[in-house]
Structure formats: C-alpha cells, structure tokens
Design a protein that fits this description.
By secondary structure, the protein is mainly α. 70% of the residues lie in helices and 0% in strands. Helix 11 packs antiparallel against helix 12. It starts with a helix and ends with a helix.
Length: 447
Amino acid sequence: MPTLGHISGLQKGYQFRVVPHFPFFVDCFRTGNAYLKLGRLEESVEQFRLSAENGEATAVRSAQDVSSLQQDWADAQQLFQQGQYKECVMRVRKLASMATHNAGIKEVFVAAAGKAQLWDDINTVLKDVIGEPCFRSNLLLRYHYALAFYNIACFDECMRNIDILVETASDYTGAQQLKEKCMELQKLVTAGKTYMNKQEHSWSHEAFTKAMSVDPSVPVIQKYLSACRAVPLMNLSRYEEAVKECSRALENNPYEWRVKALECRALCYEAQGEVQYAIADYERALELRPSSEIEQRLHHLRQLKPKRKDYYHILGVKKDANTNQIKASYRTLALKYHPDRQSCPSEEERNIMKTKFQEISEAYMVLSDQEKRSRYDAGESMETIDSPEHDPFILFNMICGTLPDDATICQTVAHRAKQFCFWSTCCVVGTATSPCWGPVLFCRGDR
C-alpha cells in the first residue's frame, strides 16, 4: 500500500515512481487505491481499469465499487442541497471512510450528520484522521468533532477539542457558546459526584437536576444525567423514582455507561423485594461488562427463596381496604400500567408495564374475592389457593369499562357510546388483547 508520502506526491501532481520488480498491473492497482484515499474517484477508476486490463482480476471489482461510490457521491451532494441530511449521510458514509484524505467529502458528511444528529457517525469517521496534518487546521471538522462528543455526553473530550479550536480561531461561530455549556455541565456533574461521595445525597440530586436544565434539547445528555440522578435517589430510598430515572436512561441507549443504570435499577428492585426484575437487570449488565461483584449478587439472589407477593402493596391499599377501595385502586393502576397506553414505548418499557399490569390483575383477582382474600390473609401460599388463569386484558375491559359511582355526565355519555364499540364482541370471547383502552381513557376526563 502507498505511504502518506506517496499520497502527498499525488496531491502535488506527481506520479508514483515505478518500482522495477513490481508488475505494471500491481503498480496501477496501488495507484488506484491511493487516488481513492484522496477522493479522486475518476482517476481511481481509470487506474483500476488499467490494472484489470493488464492481468489483475480483483481490479475489476474495485473499479465497479469506485464507480458505485462516484454515483453515491453525486446523489449525496444533491440530497444535501435538498435538506435530506439523513439520506445524504447514508449515501456518503462508506466513501467518507474510504477517502481518508479528502477534506471536502468529510466536510459534507459531518455537516449532514450534524444536521441529522448522527453524532456517533461523526466520531467513527473522524477519530482516526482528525490528528493528521492535512486535517489538523480544518476548523469545520474540529468543531463538529467537539460537538459530537458534547452530544454523547463526553464532556472531557469535547473540552479538549474545543480548546484546540479556540486556540486556532477564538471567534469561530458557536465555539465559545459550546465551551460555556460544556464547562457548566462539567462543573455541575463534578459537584453532584462530589456530594455523592460525601453522602450528601439531597445536594447531589439537586446538582444533577440543575445540570439537566443547562441544555434540555440534547437527548443523550438528559439520559446520562437521569442515570446520575438515579443514584442519590436510590441512596435516599426513593426507589420508584430511581427506577423511573434508570428506565429513562436505558431507553435506546447504546453507550457503555448504561451498565451503571442497569446496576442502579437492579439494586432498587432488590431493595423493593422484586427479585425477578433485579436478576434480569444484573444478567443484562453482566452480558455488557463482566464483573465479579455482579456475579456474586446474582448468585445470592438466585439462592433466595421466592417471597410471597404482597398484593396489598401491589395495589397500594391497606389491609383493611374494602371492595370499593380495591376496585378504585385497580382502575388507577391498570390505566397507568396498561402496555398499550403509550403511543411509542420502547420494547423494554412495554415488557415492564406488561408484567406490572399482570401483577395488578392477579392481585385484584385474589383481593376482590372474599374467600381467596381470607385464605391469603391467613398466610396460605398462592399454590394452594385455587386461582384459575385469567386474561388481564379481559379483566381490564370488564372493570375499567364500567362506570364509577361518581361518574359525570360526560363520562356516562362516553361509556354508553362505548357499548357500541365494534371490538366489544371480540373482547367477550377473549380474542382481542387491548382494543378498548382508548374509549376508557376518554372516560377519565370531563371532555
């Protein structure tokens, strides 16, 4: 393969010196690769064709590939002008990686990727070349490289690159503003971690909360700070809030620090006695990053005898709650945890909601039946209580599809309209999973 010296020679208009002991087709093939690295696609295709004509069989495929890259580059420039930035990135991604020493192609790529918020793509393309002499003074690439680190919550790397940029051009558009936001986030995150180490968990939570207001428009930063904020909440025994923060941090999260969110959520589940959820999170964390400590926690939890479920705790009622209170609590929780209530939940959130929804239904089936409730209160295990399997979605339709005692006029009208729902027939025979939650939600308000 040609050296950077050879490539620099090409940039100055020189041709490679033909080495006598190499066949002509080998020299052409290597020249074609050098032109490709420079992003000079027409010359690259020509050299590969010469190599193929002189006996290099693999040069035929190389010429075809570079011709395809030529078309992609033409399409990408057109897509960029049309404002279709994500499609532009998809077209030019391969060329941007292969044309390692062409600044123009990389500038189009990072500009489009920045508009489409594809920050990981920018890091992938620039990480190995940003220090090369031909790119060292390129302010556009340096700024987008720093911006990419900022948007994936790598504040130290962002500051290092933004300092290089500011030293070269202190008045570069957006550089100073980016530096100020990054410094503010660094300060607050450091303060939060310092307070945490000093066991000042309320102050730690406050610092992370304040950091979330610095730049609410960046999703990854918000997820990272949610993961940070979950730890002081856990130490303050605010387990449900901590679980919500961890779940928010884990949604569509490909970054390494998600392991910390999994561990934190597992500890919260463990503290709440939800051993099966804790085991599931520990197993996921172990897959992502092997740890002897997590292995020990898993071994300990797997040895524990499963505890009997506390149905009163699941429904959030006292042990002396009457039937109406139990039904009211079921209504509230069933509507809250119904897996189809959210328009676009992640797969993980949907599975968690579905499991909780099933637990709520199971608790209601026992506590709403006087005989089963008496046996449960007497300490009898669920294995001995005759509780036939039930479909939680049918139960939801039966209970939440009926009017509460204090129903308003609007609720009454909506409920009666629901009786003519097309899906009601399917629900009776149990073939529909959850088609009627929309009308039920409508019944909740005075709209």
